[in-house]
Amino acid sequence: MDEAMNIMSSFWKQLVGLILMVTAVMTLSAQEVKAEAAAPVDQQVQDLKRSVLNLNRELFVLEEELLFPANTQLMLFLSMDVGKYFSLDSVEVTLDGKELSSYLYTPRETDALLRGGVQRFYIGNLKSGEHELVAVFTGKGPSGRDYRRAASLEFDKGLGAKFVELKISDRDSSQQPEFVIREWE
Amino acid sequence: MSLSVNKLMSVLAVALTLVAVHADSSLPSVGESPPDFALRSDTGVNRRLSEYRGEVVLLNFWASWCQSCRAELLQLNGIVETIGSDVQVLSVNIDDNRAKAEQDLRALKLSFPVMFDTDQTVSKLYELPTLPVTLIIDQLGQLRFVHQGYKASDEIVYEDELASLLAE
């Protein structure tokens, strides 16, 4: 009788052990299947995002080419060098006496300019011929005083895009900021 | 006679609905990014809305002649004290006279930055239908809640909405 009881007990132990093992194996395999299924979906989402970004960039380029054809294009850039004698607040640009664009700078933006960043200030179309560009720079000058200076450039717009740079730099000899507008060749 | 009165009432109801729809549609839509702008502020620092992306922003438009705006600003001070630096409260004053706004600010003692839209470029950009207007923007820079006007205890709703965005 005891022997029969021992055999039964051993049988139940083995059965429970087997069930636990099967459950563990099934859980593990289910997790593996899930991981395998999830990886391609993640990859697909990433690929899709990349495609959307590429498409967006191509559309942006195409839009600019359509809106601002190379023959009539005018682009203004703004750069800043050192900035010891001038803290930039805003820039207003007029073309042939008409307001073209203006921009108010935050500390983060001026910091980016001081670290070598170049801002695309304006893009638009301009007909061929003689033009006058005037830029008014406001900010804090030496000793933290309010500072307002203008610079101008007369240029001839021919065929092809015209690139113009508004450049703010320090002139150590006079301890004053210097504002220059120049054409990019 | 009663028929024509009914007709008139119907026309009036439709007209009022259209006006209401038009008033609602003038502000930026919920779910979209509100237009970016930069303005001078009371601290002397220029501020740009897009630079606060990544933070929950409460953007409030007000004017010194608007009594409910002043009541709301004081409650916004309370929100800043309660929630702290987790939320960026920004306010835009649309008075054309900055000196008048600054005089009010001295009395109100606000604990958040105030920007001055003296030439009303931003208020036109946002097509403000009324004052005050409070916009709540999420960390992704999308407009999530819009409030026009102010009544007592609205700040409780603001706090709940801000808390829900912070929990996302």
SSE run of chain A:
HEEEHEEEEE
Largest sheet of chain A: 4 strands, mixed
Oligomer: heterodimer
Tell me, rounded to a whole number, the average pLDDT of chain B: 87
What does the average pLDDT of chain A come to? 85
Q: Please state how the strands of the largest beta sheet of chain B are arranged side by side.
A: 2-1-5-4-3-6-7
Report the strand count of chain A.
8
What general form of chain A does the structure show?
elongated
Biggest sheet record of chain B: 7 strands, mixed
Q: Please identify, by name, the CATH architecture of chain B.
A: 3-Layer(aba) Sandwich
Please identify the top-level CATH class of the largest domain in chain A. Answer: Mainly Beta
Low-confidence parts of chain A, pLDDT < 50 over ≥5 residues?
A: none
Number of domains of chain A: 2
Judged by helices, strands and strand pairing, the structural class of chain A is alpha+beta
Q: Helical residue percent of chain A?
A: 40-55%
Give me the number of helical elements of chain B: 5
Distance between the amino and carboxyl termini of chain B:
58 Å
Q: What is the count of DSSP helices of chain A, taking H or I runs of 4+ residues?
A: 2
The CATH architecture of the largest domain in chain A can be named as Sandwich
General description of the model:
The complex is a heterodimer of chains A (185) and B (168). By secondary structure, chain A is an alpha+beta fold. Chain A has helices at 2-67, 107-114; strands at residues 73-80, 87-95, 98-104, 119-125, 129-140, 146-157, 162-171, 176-184. Chain A contains two helices and eight strands, in the order H-E-E-E-H-E-E-E-E-E. In chain A, the strands form two sheets. Chain A has a four-stranded mixed sheet with strand order 4-1-7-8. A four-stranded antiparallel sheet of chain A has the order 3-2-5-6, with no helix packed on it. In chain A, strand 5 (129-140) and strand 6 (146-157) form a beta hairpin. Chain A is elongated. The mean pLDDT of chain A is 85. With 168 residues, chain B is α/β, with parallel strands linked by helices. In chain B, helix 2 (67-83) packs parallel to helix 5 (154-166). Chain B is globular, with a radius of gyration of 18 Å. Chain B has a single domain (29-166), classed as Glutaredoxin. The chains are: A alpha+beta (185), B alpha/beta (168). Chains A and B meet through helix 2 of A and strand 1 and strand 2 of B.
